Amino acid sequence: MSLTHGSLFSGIGGFEIGAAANNISTIWNCEIDSYNRKILKQHFPNTIQHEDIRELRHPSAVDIISGGFPCQDLSIAGRGRGITGERSGLWSEMLRIIDEGRPAYVVIENSPELLKKGFENVLYPLSEIGYDAEWQCLSGTTFGVQQGRERVYCIAHTNGIGQQGERQKPIFSEPELSRQFQGVHPGWRTRSDIPKPRAFRSLNDIPNGMERTKAHGNAIMPIVASYLFRCIVNHYNQITP
Q: Which Gene Ontology BP annotations are present (predicted)?
């Protein structure tokens, strides 16, 4: 059985790329920014597009729902209003869609500040609707990429899945360095050992277009998304006869 995926707060498709790398089809996505939707349509022409999560009701059933709800009210660069702020408060809409669709797995991405500014408002409501959760803080340098942008990633699964099998292993596995970097600098073992980029985002050679820079700046790195979906596939295979 092939797993399916629905993406919320999709940006330019980082989670979609990670899903595709694990042979998981993205059935639908939801993104309010018109520029980002153009990018999504270009790379995922067969995926159903939705625009405003506040207007989205009962999208097609999928096995996995992912989303990085806005972090502006949580980030140290923001005003610190927390998860009940106008932007980060859109988590409640994501929770509603999870409850409507009842996917087997949920992937959540946000600023590490979430752990100090309302993470209980994520975990407790998920528990109320029947989900258990695990989480990790990861950055690109965890995988050998020269970017220290740390984020918290939470993978939740239905309690029924968690109760299947004997002594279920954790969903998260040991992250692997990108093959692109393996063997190049064998002495690099921790994030502090990996040099930072010489200039702001110069590693990706992004032109000075405001929309493109904003889109890339808000995007989840596909290499991290691929790891998260691989963890889900491995977990799913453990419980599937």
A: DNA restriction-modification system; methylation
Distances (CA, A) of 201 to 33, 216, 217: 22, 9, 9
The rounded distance, in Å, linking the Cα atoms of 63 and 101 is 9
Which tokens sit at 236? Answer: 């799913």
Rounded to whole angstroms, the Cα distance separating 43 from 46 reads 9
Residue 220 scores a pLDDT above 70: yes
Six-digit token string for 166: 């004997």
Q: Judge whether 30 counts as a catalytic residue.
A: no
Q: For 39-76, write each residue's pLDDT tens digit.
A: 999 999 999 999 999 999 999 999 999 999 988 777 66
Residue-level pLDDT at 82: 72
Range of the domain at 31: 4-239
Structural contact between residues 120 and 196, judged by C-beta atoms closer than 8 angstroms:
no
Say yes or no to pLDDT of 128 above 80: yes
What's the rounded Cα separation, in Å, for the pair 59 and 38?
20
pLDDT tens by residue, 165-175: 545 678 998 77
The rounded distance, in Å, linking the Cα atoms of 137 and 151 is 5
Identify whether the C-beta of residue 144 lies closer than 8 Å to the C-beta of residue 114: no
Say what the alpha-carbon torsion angle 35, 32, 141, 5 is, to the nearest 10 degrees. Answer: -110
Indicate which CATH number applies to the domain containing 144: 3.40.50.150
Report the phi/psi class of residue 175: left, alpha or beta, with left for phi > 0 and alpha for psi in -120 to 50: beta
How many domains does the chain divide into? 1
Backbone phi, then psi, for 148, in 5-degree steps? -95, 30
